[in-house]
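Researcher: Good morning. I'm working through a list of sequences from a screen, and I'd like to move beyond sequence-only analysis. For each chain I'm collecting a predicted structure so we can compare shapes side by side. This is the next one on the list. No need for commentary yet; just the structure.
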Amino acid sequence: MNYFYLFLLLILIGLNAPAKDRLNVILIMADDSHADNYSGYGSKFFSTPRLDELARTGAKFNHCYSTPVCTSSRVKIMTGRYGIRNYVQFGTLDKDEITFGHMMQKAGYVTAIAGKWQLHGGDRGTLAPASGFDTYCLWNYPGTERSRYWSPSLMRDGELLKTTEKDYGPDILTDYLIEFISKNKTKPFFAYYPMLLVHSPFPKTPDSKNEKGSSLDNFRDMTLYADKCVGRIVDALKKNGLREKTVIIYTTDNGTHRALTYPYGSEERKGEKAYATDGGTHAPLIVNCPGQVPEGVVSDDLVDFSDLLPTIADLTGADLPNVKLDGRSFWPQCQGKKGNPREWIYQYYYPKYKAAAAKHGQGVNKNEIVWAQNQKFKLYGDGTLYTVKDRHENSPLKNGENSAADQARKLLQAAIDSMPKKAAKLSAGKK
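Model: Good morning. Structure tokens for this chain:
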């Protein structure tokens, strides 16, 4: 009889083990930073050593795509759904949407968000607690003001922080997440860090050496400082014995600010934030977790921002929300497996920056931009086809010009045709 109870106890312990061994997740998303702003993606101008190390010892994806501007990217990454289904207007996350915060709370995770919010606008907007976060420290949140870097205006769990001109916003937010990690090291946690860096304005950082640096000088320093903040989080995980239990994901929400021109290889590249071009949407994506993600994984598979939510569900065992999702997990690819690669990604974009719609805007106010793409070709809803390597989209491809392009046109047109024809929640009068 004693052996029976011992056997039963072992079974119960085994059933409980997966809950204790669940992986933590920290999702970091920098603001206004193209893939070519990273040394791990070929830049000789920008230096990002901690991120390079994460890419070298984990997985790096070469074809990850955000949307061209912050709100649409943030809504997509948080919900796993294309903008055609849930984009309302600039600065709004619809209050009826289910986010990865809700998903992870339901799965028994402690959740936190730190950084930039800017999703509470209009009649349909929402706040962090209602979006699935147990605790928060945020800028561009009700009760805060415009300063985000020096003497920052930050709301922490309903309390406006008292700061001085010596306080630097990114340090406060990184400290907050390090405290969250330490406090919850015995529990499974999910932390979302939509960074303040490296968005304009471009002041010096605490590490800047040139007091009269140009905007580009300071932007380069800010990129290195964002890298430093990531490194501090990695070090905190090591200190708390959580490095092998925590998946770190790093990406960015859209392209580099249009005011900046920077070297890349033999080129001088101008930032293309807000444009529906490769310069506006091509994001870095790095995933790292020792023991879970093998060293040196480099993937050329397509990744869309809608894929982050199902990937997080896959690696943690969380149940997917019971809504129409557009993303698919790329967790197998992170582990060096084949997975279920995409053949295309679809984008819906209603720009706040009107000039972005000049070439391909259609529909409501001639401002809606729709396209589908793969790694080599990109087709807009108006029928214009480009090669992805045509960075500024100056040379549209005609029917019959080459067989590969014609095959891609059929594939990408079918992708566009498979999507709804009308935006479900667009508030076009307010943008």
